[in-house]
Design brief:
The complex is a heterotrimer of chains A (374), B (386) and C (596).
Chain A: H1 2-10, H2 15-20, H3 28-53, H4 56-66, E1 67-71, E2 82-87, E3 93-97, E4 106-110, E5 116-125, E6 130-134, E7 158-163, E8 176-187, E9 202-206, E10 219-221, E11 227-231, E12 235-236, E13 243-244, E14 246-249, H5 250-261, H6 286-289, E15 291-293, E16 305-308, H7 313-317, E17 324-328, E18 331-332, H8 336-343, E19 352-358, E20 361-367
Antiparallel strand pairs in A: 1-2, 1-4, 2-3, 3-6, 4-5, 5-6, 7-8, 7-10, 8-9, 9-14, 10-11, 11-14, 12-13, 15-16, 17-18, 17-19, 19-20
Chain B: H1 14-19, H2 21-28, H3 30-33, H4 41-44, E1 49-53, E2 68-72, H5 73-89, E3 92-98, E4 103-104, E5 107-108, E6 114-118, E7 124-128, E8 138-142, E9 148-157, E10 162-167, E11 189-194, E12 203-214, E13 219-222, E14 234-236, E15 242-246, E16 268-272, H6 273-283, E17 296-298, E18 310-313, H7 318-321, E19 329-333, E20 336-337, H8 341-348, E21 356-363, E22 366-373, H9 377-385
Antiparallel strand pairs in B: 1-2, 3-6, 3-8, 4-5, 6-7, 7-10, 8-9, 9-10, 11-12, 11-14, 12-13, 13-16, 14-15, 15-16, 17-18, 19-20, 19-21, 21-22
Chain C: H1 8-31, H2 36-55, E1 56-61, E2 67-72, E3 78-81, H3 83-89, E4 92-96, E5 102-111, E6 116-121, E7 131-132, E8 143-148, E9 160-173, E10 182-188, E11 200-203, E12 207-215, E13 228-232, H4 233-244, E14 252-253, E15 256-261, E16 265-271, H5 276-279, E17 287-291, E18 294-295, H6 299-306, E19 314-321, E20 324-331, E21 333-334, H7 340-350, H8 384-387, H9 399-412, E22 425-431, E23 436-441, E24 445-450, E25 453-458, H10 475-488, E26 495-504, E27 509-518, E28 521-528, E29 534-540, E30 548-558, E31 561-571, E32 574-585
Parallel strand pairs in C: 7-12
Antiparallel strand pairs in C: 1-2, 1-4, 2-3, 3-6, 4-5, 5-6, 8-9, 8-11, 9-10, 10-13, 11-12, 12-13, 14-21, 15-16, 16-17, 17-18, 17-19, 19-20, 22-23, 22-32, 23-24, 24-25, 26-27, 27-28, 28-29, 29-30, 30-31, 31-32
Chain lengths: 374, 386, 596
Amino acid sequence: MPFLEESVTNALTPWPSLQKKGPGRRGLLLALAAIFVAVHFFLVANFATAADHFDFASVNRYAQQRSVKIYGAGGMRQLEAYQSGMLVSSEGHVATAQSLVLDQDEATVVLGDGRRYTGRVVGVDLVAEVALLKIDAEGEELPHFDLSRTPDVFTGMRLLAFSNLYNVATGDEPVSVLHGSLSAIAPLEARRGAFATRYRGEVYIVDAATNNPGAAGGVLVDLAGNPIGMLGKEVRSQVTGAWLHYALPWSQVAASVEKIRSGRRDPSSTELSSTAPELPERPATFDSLGFHLLPNVVPRTPPYVDYVTQGSLAQGAGILPDDLVLAIGGRITGTRTEVERALSHVGLGERLLVTILRDDQLVEVELKPSESKE
Amino acid sequence: MNRSQTKNRKKTPGLAVGLAPSCGELARGSELTIHDGASPTANGGFFRLLVVGMLLLPGAHSSRAQSLERTTLEQLEEQAFRSAVLHAAGSIVQLRIIGGAERVDGVTMAEGPTTGVVLSSDGYVVTSLYRFVPPPVTVLAILADGKQFAAKVVATDQSRKLVLLKLQNAEGLAVTEPAPADSYRVGQWAIALGQTYRADRPNVSVGILSAKRRIFGRALQTDAAVSAANYGGPLIDIEGRVLGILAPMSPGSEKAIAGVDWYDSGIGFAVPLEAWMPAMERLKTGKDLQRGVLGVTLSEGSPRETPAKIKEVISQGPAAEVGIEVGDLVTQINGQPIATHNDLKFAITPHYAGDTLTLTLERDGQSQEVEVTLTTIAHLQELAKE
Amino acid sequence: MIMQRPTIMQRTALILFYGACLFAITTQAAEAAAPREVFEAEANRIAVIDRISQQTVAIFDSAGQGGGSGVLISSDGYALTNFHVASPCGVAMKCGLADGKLYDAVLVGLDPTGDVALIKLLGRTDFPAAELGDSDAARQGDWVLVLGNPFLLAEDFQPTVTYGILSGTHRYQYPAGTLLEYADCLQTDASINPGNSGGPLFDAEGRLIGINGRGSFEKRGRVNVGVGYAISINQIKRFLSHLKAGRLVDHATLGATVASVEGGRVVVDDLLESSDAYRRGLRYGDYLVAFGGRDLHSANALKNVLGTYPTGWRVPVEFRREEQAFRANVRLASLHAMGELESLIANQAKNPTPIEPPGPKDDKEKKGLPILLPKKAKKIEMPEAVKQVYEKREGFANYWFNRQYQQRLAESCRQWKCLDPSRPLTLKATDRQGESVRLVGDEATGEFRSQRGQFFARFEGAYHEEVGPPGSGGFLAASAEWRQLLSHGFDGSGEVFYFGQLPFGEDLELHDCLVTFHRGAKTHFYFDAKRGDLVGMELFLADDRDPCEVRFSDFQAWGDGLLPFTWHVKFGDSTYTEFKVDHYSQNAQAKEFADE
């Protein structure tokens, strides 16, 4: 629902919260009215809060008091032995990125005021790669970021990233702060290899170099100091080939922390609602549809139709050899691999819209399997 | 806490706190209400306080009553960026590249789509050369509203690393608005947009205009993040007008995708759009544009100091054809004074092969003017072989 | 559980609803597209950039191969850059300004430890100069502007401008060996790339707050990663007069090492007994509380602030022992031994790192190394304009400038050469106890008589370490050096150079300091920075001993000049004597008083 989300965010309202209170089929009008009021009040509230606390000294102090530096294992294979984190509970829970730094199940946590504690790893959300540490603050109420907050997020919004990148901030020094804008809200598509990630959900892509060594686990905040997300690891984007600077959305951080705190540490239980859409058990195949593509001869072989089976659905729909398959079921297909991936989303026997390029013209054809065929 | 003593504490409207308890926590946090007495950051800090009207509140509501609120310049700017992006977004297209190389010049190309900008309502779109070397099998253009078009390459501007595309059967497209060239100011907001991560809205990177005449007069420079995420996309001003088209350019190399070395550097380049519009008209004829050359070499020396004295004239080249000789000193090009090698480079490099320039030469103390029509490097290389 | 997706109908309704909201808001936003404040702020920034662009320098070596950036700080052409930019250029370099012109420039001063160099652009007296700001007033999050010549892009000499915030203040970046230490520096996310080195970091109002010189680079190749460092302008301000003196300047050491202990305290865990800190009362196990007005909570904090001081500087230090608090003005010693800096520089010049184009490189890049070491310039004939303002001398970057300052001191000092070198000087005075004091001296002898007794010295070769009177630190030698300077000026034997400004006196006010080496002793002469009078001196008979310090005041006309009529002689923390002069005389009969 990307388009929806943009509309919502443009209306300055947090979509996730609305999603949860999503309008029922019958109460739509009522819900609309309620949402409108909510939208408006949120605006008022948001600006009013902002008005009181928008000078940087305050926002900086607010975020610094809640940011921590984490020192642990590492130092091998040229990996850093340090990273960043943030306090997320008054009793000393620290959220950070899961990494080798935490391999010893213990790490040194340095608070914004320079106090040092030993942090014990409470648990890890392996999918979101979020780890939760706990320090013993001896009954002291620690300042922390509010996990229940549902921040207002929109493309182009201004952001501040707090982290101990390059371990610049030693001792009791405040961590580094970088400014930037939210470049995009998009799925995390990292290049495979040394810097692979498991998480495939939507992330916040930032236009500043926020993801430097040691920055993972740092906090991304908006102009008022509201937490927006947790800085991710160093990865290269599959989409652009460039280093990807991103943060895990706050709602995901909150969900992961909640999951860990509730003791559900089994990776199988940490499925992400936002990631994998449900795939059909029996997807459509080239054989079932009746057209075949050129084999993958070069890495980016265009999806040209090689041949069409006599009497097949494809032939019935008018697909011809040399047609270029540009979309299947609304999914853009630039390569044979992408066609295969698109087909995996289509159930065997489902209706299927195929966009093809023939003589510089885009042509849409519909493959309609009859019940009997199945 | 001694809140009352803090100098620049702003009054929180009771209404706001009451209605938004989740924000109240932040509001009530004492650490947030104690300000530095002197507040030196009020001048130059990230968050300057300004007293402004609540312009962005839905006007239909009666809450105008709270017309005067304190908000920050940064927040107003954030809203201005948003408006600027909205203004430009309608004329940005996502380009899906079908086929094309995986690696070019030893660099792994991005797998995602690239970006284009609509220049005419009937479907002329400019994009960058990135992903067009070698030319792809075909290109699918997707508009923000979801409409799709097959796109054909019309011609390429090799000098500025731009490609002109034509969307087949397009009409009534939203056309981009170029910013007037005389409005460019170093230090103005410059927002780089791409349509790479998703088709329905642009990805945004905010920066400023860093310099105006880079790569010998062919590019604007910005510190907004420029990469494959927005090559071919627009660099816009705070009003949403297009300053330039982001391109994979590099001062050190004329290679097709030389710019990839500059990712993350805070140095990005864009071809100024308004001045490029005539070049677009030339590309419409289907002929590629190449950087123009004179067919001479200059005497050795420091590029920033040594006068532009001709050391060699390539025979049958443009300079030779009009009688330029070894030892001639170039003193003017199109009326602009030329004092050094670099001056000459600045005067010639922005021109294309086929352009005609007026050179003023000094020979034996005598000044004379010649008209020279520039040619391509490839042509010069052919001549050299003969 | 998978969340239930809205139906098509719900989606459509929502789209319509939010579309309407969006429309309402964006129409509003479009009307208010950019509020006046936004345009005004943008226009202000453009105006500031327009001004500071004129002050920014694109530096190229003589061969036009390498270079970096710089910034003008005075209308007569002094400009700051990095040591690592200026050093490979040698004595002469070319500087491009935004006016499109290329100027000859000459090396003036070098600070290899702090990675700072001072150069002077030639040919104008009306260069646009930057206003120096206060880097200690800069705060994390302040907007800043970086100008410079990254990758030598400024072929038309127009600087590259990048915008960002201060990511950190009072940062510390380790040196390479003992050189290129970035102490108490500023960290910014405004993009800084190779070639930005030596260029200015401005605050939002266009005041110079730092000199960019370094970035954290790792696996990204040698390009910006949002982590650049600038030397604070407040550090440079302390060194500026020393650099203007054409010197190769050195940083300082306290002579003590410290460790962080519980409760954010800093304890002295080692101490040289020969250090001034020891002589001022600091002892092993004491807690350092503040240094130079900066509270200390960690050992790193001391290292950080110490790195910003020149050698010879006196710094107020606060420390505690048990419940007792102490405060002392401690003189810092040189970080490097004599001649050590020269050899370090020479070694570095042999192995300059070439400029690298940007781009993905392997992982071998070391983090935090300086941004740009241009190729060593080919031997190129020095331009005539540069030759005229250059003089080579060991220990100096350019002795010509030192000579200029010496001349200026001599011209403005009203005590200069006001004594007749051929005649002995006799001074008759009354001390605070009302007792009479007499000081007599000529080229070879000195005599001091007071209630404490009568002391006599004959000067042959080096001063004896125990030259009297006892407890004065060598007042007979000091007064002889004073008489020497006032009689002969620079024509006296021995080495002389202008040091720059140093804090002197009770209030640690800055004074112009002239250093002489004569008869084996080093003497600091302090001149009032405004009026030029010689108001004090320190004579060092040995490195590990307090000097004999004399403060001069109450200047009155005498002959053609002006002489001090109050002398205050100190040794260490105690006053040896303080007297008011009744009269000076230079009669031929040298021993007039002595024989009385």
